[in-house]
Design goal:
Blueprint (H helix, E strand, L loop, with lengths): L1 H15 L22 E8 L15 E4 L2 E2 L2 E4 L7 E8 L14 H9 L4 E8 L3 E8 L2 H9 L12 H11 L10 E8 L10 H10 L3 E6 L7 H4 L9 H14 L1 H9 L3 E3 L3 H16 L2 E5 L12 E8 L7 E3 L3 E4 L14
Parallel strand pairs: 5-6, 5-8, 8-9, 9-10
Antiparallel strand pairs: 1-11, 1-13, 2-3, 2-12, 4-11, 6-7, 12-14
Length: 344
């Protein structure tokens, strides 16, 4: 089973690695990507009281793709997987008042990593996205990069979507032999201000990727994505699904991205709140089931291209709290042309 797990991860990561180096966000077009049909679904399971559920078996999970049951594989050795992490920090607008709460960020990230093999990249953003360090294993290089993480003199823009899309493209530079998990840690306010990358493109790229986005937001916010995406009944068309994601991203970017990808979301307005949020993320990162499946349809027809809705249930624990990626993007077609601004 371990051999099968490695082969499945090889297929997924090899397909995601076949792209060019990232360009600056305002110059990065939507490109067609070669990809495997394998879908990875990191999944966290808690009792209704919040206690972690361990040792579940593959047969206890029910996974639906647009309402169609799928055959799943459960990786039994996730502790052996390393982590590729991109830390994305807003330096503009209200970030000026929050940097004092983040003084312990390097030490807190160590809590996220645990003892797993890892490499980290660091980005900050305001009107521009700046790569402070590309992926590195070096503690000194990373410490120097964190030293350069300072508030920027920018009271207008916070291009969160540009920064996340740029971070997602950084994984494309990893060698095909890198089979470790991929995660983005986003630290910023709830709204996007000034991004040039189309919202629908970011939604499609994150739904296509096997990357998990975790986020800690400056301001508390409410996200309606879970209510907007239909449970049961006919699945939305790709255009309808993209529109739902775009509308949710307008309301709360970090929360929507974590819901999409199965990550953890928290908010803070104090140093204690920030530290609590990071510790919650650490608990999520180190306690998960890695499910995977190759999409099939009920009648054996080709799997339709576009956004697909994932649903996971555990019949033995009907009251369990289950965190998983809500969507994935099948095929290489560009996302539907959905306007970024609400139409009158």
């Amino acid at each position: 089973m371990r051999v099968l797990s490695i082969l499945l991860l090889l297929l997924a990561v090899d397909a995601l690695a076949q792209t060019t180096a990232p360009a600056p966000p305002d110059q990065t077009p939507f490109t067609l990507r070669s990809q495997s049909s394998l879908v990875l679904v990191p999944t966290q399971v808690q009792t209704h009281k919040g206690d972690m559920l361990y040792d579940l078996q593959p047969t206890q999970f029910t996974l639906l793709d647009d309402g169609v049951p799928q055959t799943i594989h459960l990786d039994e050795d996730t502790d052996a997987l390393g982590l590729n992490l991109v830390v994305v920090v807003q330096c503009s607008r209200s970030a000026f008042t929050q940097f004092g709460h983040m003084t312990g960020l390097p030490a807190l990230i160590d809590d996220l990593l645990g003892g797993a093999p890892h490499q980290i990249a660091l980005i900050n953003y305001g009107s521009e996205v700046e790569l402070l360090t590309s992926f590195t294993h070096s503690d000194k290089r990373l410490a120097d990069a964190f030293t350069n993480l300072q508030p920027c003199d920018d009271e207008k823009d916070a291009r969160t979507l540009d920064a996340v899309d740029y971070a997602n493209h950084l994984f494309d530079k990893l060698p095909a032999t890198n089979h470790d998990r991929r995660a983005i840690l986003l630290i910023g306010e709830t709204r996007d201000h000034g991004s040039q990358t189309r919202t629908a493109v970011v939604a499609a790229n994150l739904a296509r990727s096997n990357t998990v986005v975790d986020a800690i937001s400056f301001n508390p916010g409410k996200d309606d994505l879970l209510k907007m995406l239909p449970f049961g009944g006919p699945a939305p068309s790709p255009a309808e699904a993209i529109l739902l994601l775009v509308n949710a991203l307008r309301r709360n970017v970090p929360h929507t991205l974590t819901n999409m990808t199965g990550g953890e979301y928290s908010n803070f307005n104090s140093q204690k709140g920030f530290e609590k949020g990071v510790h919650r993320l650490a608990n999520h990162i180190h306690n998960f089931y890695l499910l995977s499946f190759q999409p099939t349809t009920a009648d054996g027809a080709p799997v339709p291209s576009g956004i697909h809705r994932i649903t996971i249930k555990i019949p033995d624990y009907p009251d369990a709290k289950i965190r998983f990626r809500l969507t994935y993007y099948f095929g290489s077609a560009p996302p539907p042309d959905v306007p970024d601004s609400p139409q009158n």
